[in-house]
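Your task:
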Amino acid sequence: MKISKILAGMSAAAIVASMAMIPASAAGTKLNVSDDLAKIGRQTQDDLFAVFFNGDESEGAVNKDAISDLGAVYGASFTIKVDNNDWNTIGGGGSINFNSKSGGWNAKDWAGGSWVEDDKPKDTLCYTTEEEGTYVLEYLGDAPVFATTDGDADNFAAVGINNWAADLKGIDVVGMKVLGADGNVLFEAGSNKDKKEVQKKPVAEESSSGADSTPSGTDSKKDDSKKDDKSSAAATSTAATSSKSGTTTTATSSAAASDNVAATGATAGLALAGVALAGAAIVISKRK
């Protein structure tokens, strides 16, 4: 009877410890918003920043006269700065959001660094710039993201950015643009950078493949390259992999990523419980 109580107690303690780990990993790394953007937007939670172009001014800044016709909005871009080493090893992801009374939560997923997958492209593209560690996240659709009714006084319309990556040192949001049908700028704020090309693969992976390159004409080398790509993908952190979800249309896009991260924490907790039980068994056998 005493042995069973000892085992039950140790198992319960391990499970409680594992549950305590889940909330700490659920939220994304804080978005550090530049002062000029913070003045015109709202940050209701650390990993979500939005600029409102219609809505209730008593709840925060509203840029009501910034865009004459909200029905002309087809997209947006955000300029961000990150630790480039983290970006290429840990990776990052989230969404650009168009939130309104008529359309609800409309999230367009983005991925950067080691989270980029060529076979799973995102609606929002991650462009490089001339400045190391600075990227442009841009979504440009083929239809308006807001209805014309969002211009009514009782409605709201906001453009925001969400971050899911929990392990980055930080993401600095330094600039934003609201885009029209042809990519023309309807509204601009902050310090935006000129985009170059779409970042399809992490810089570290490109450097590695360049160093190992040999003259073409050998099929075996092509096969080895494919194996290397799979190995690289498998090495991506569990948190990053579990956070990659499809375009989110529910209340919050970060919640979907949080569920996956929480599941990872729960798995770790069960493993911890198993270690505790094994330790108890060893102690009991020695006492015999």
Observations:
- The first strand starts at residue 31 and ends at 33.
- The chain is about 35% helix and 25% strand.
- The radius of gyration is 23 Å.
- The helical segments are 2-26, 35-38, 84-89, 203-211, 219-234, 238-243, 253-287.
